[in-house]
Amino acid sequence: MKSTVNGIAINYELSGVADGPAVVLHHPLATSLNSWDELTAALEHKYRVLRLDARGHGQSDAPAGPYAFETLAKDVVDLMTACGIDKASFIGLSMGGMVGQYLGLIHPARFNSLMLVSTSSRIPDEAKPIWEQRIAAAKKDGMASQVDGAMARWVSPRALAEDAALVERLRKLILSTPIDGYLGWCEAIRGLNVTSRLAAIKLPTRVIVGELDPATPVAASQAIHEAIPGSDLVIVPGVSHMLHNEEPELFHSHVLPFLDNHAGR
Predict the structure, then answer these.
(1) Strand order of the sheet with strand 48-52?
(2) Exposure pattern of 117-147 as b/e (b: 16+ CB <10 Å)?
């Protein structure tokens, strides 16, 4: 389904229990709402699940960037409004977790809780050249230039060697990402720096990170946890950045109890 919100057409899926507590799922960079297939299946019996193709991804419009996180957060709340959802729990992974931090800062009244997964609150100066290199490579050689590097960051060495189906699934998601959308998000991510503001987030918050994640390492999640009052931190052993796809049941074991406690009505 598509809805025109915040000036663009956003593709989304709304499923589950029509009058159940709402949960919004925001996918990582260079993927789509299908990244959440496993979690959606685990939630639909109890929750109303809204998952979207973020601006510039999947079947949503991909206007030229750069994008700003204030705009990307507004995409989410405007889509919630269009779907008749006043308040929801939010789960965001990687860039989705970055959006989640902005939602907690700018739109806290619309959410019951936040789960910030495999994410960061700041891109340090020494890491900005990495993003500049990704932008330059994507402009020159397209999304195929991003596949090998992403795989090394996204899944554990074991999964990379042994789970060909997972690797192929993620590869296809990267290759299908519109180049303008990827570049727009990269520009936004490159300038991310909200750690000093996170103390203003008062929502119940769980921070989740894979032990082996080199993309948004454990230290980045620890910084978020330490900055958000009352938050908790879960370090999941043996998995990397895309832990929700690499070990879904293990991931769900840390998601479902928190949702049950904080989903609202």
Answers:
(1) 2-5, 8-16, 48-52, 22-26, 88-93, 111-117, 205-210, 232-236
(2) bbbbbbbeeeeeeebeebbeebeeeebebbb
The structure's pTM equals 0.98
Residue 194 near residue 121 (C-beta atoms within 8 A): yes
pLDDT in tens, 18-50: 999 999 999 999 999 999 999 999 999 999 999
Mean pLDDT, residues 196-206 taken together? 98
Q: Is the dihedral of CA 10, 264, 108, 230 positive or negative?
A: negative
d(CA 102, CA 255): 20
User: Cα(256)–Cα(67) distance, rounded to whole angstroms?
Assistant: 32
Compute how many other C-beta atoms are within 10 angstroms of the C-beta atom of residue 109.
Answer: 8
Q: How do residues 50-85 score in pLDDT, each as one tens digit?
A: 999 999 999 999 999 999 999 999 999 999 999 999
- In whole angstroms, give the CA distance from residue 52 to residue 48: 13
Q: 2-262, which class in CATH?
A: alpha beta
